[in-house]
Amino acid sequence: VESVLDSARSVRQYAYAPYSGFRVGAAVLDAAGRITAGTNVENASYGLTLCAERAALAAARAGGAERILLVAIAADTAEPITPCGACRQWIAELAPHALIAMLTLEGSERWCTPNDLLPHAFGGSMFRTTT
Ligand code: THU
Questions:
Q1: What is the distance, to the nearest Å, from the Cα of residue 109 to the centroid of all Cα atoms in its chain?
Q2: In the chain, at which end, N or C, are there fewer CB atoms within 10 A of the end residue's CB?
Q3: Tens place of pLDDT per residue across the chain (131 aa)
Q4: Pocket probe mutation, ligand 1, options 9, 24, 41, max atoms within 8 Å of Cβ
Q5: Are 81 and 24 in contact (CB under 8 A)?
């Protein structure tokens, strides 16, 4: 677990955040023991920015991850940051049984579940229509 938390903190060095200057790192541990990291990747067209959490989840999936056990998120803030709404939806889809760890560089940690972040999440099981 400590390696996952360290990975989320250290991958921040590769963040592409020229517009906000706010570097975020995320790391995912899957059931095969793999750790996959991601950073935020900004764009001159600001709305196209990719958050670290989604970058890490997509890379983990591409690396073969099926069951994600832990998602760690790190930023250089006084209190741990929480994932944005879009990332909560991604976590609900790809890491529904994971624990979420939110971290600062100075050692503050906050832990929660996907359901804590996004209760009543929309999901694929809701697709059935009445017509
Ligand atoms: N950001 C993340 O990568 N993850 C979060 O949980 C919150 C926000 C990024 C997006 C953008 O590049 C910068 O932080 C400022 O919003």
A1: 15
A2: C
A3: 999 999 999 999 999 999 999 999 999 999 999 999 999 999 999 999 999 999 999 999 999 999 999 999 999 999 999 999 999 999 999 999 999 999 999 999 999 999 999 999 999 999 877 87
A4: 24
A5: yes
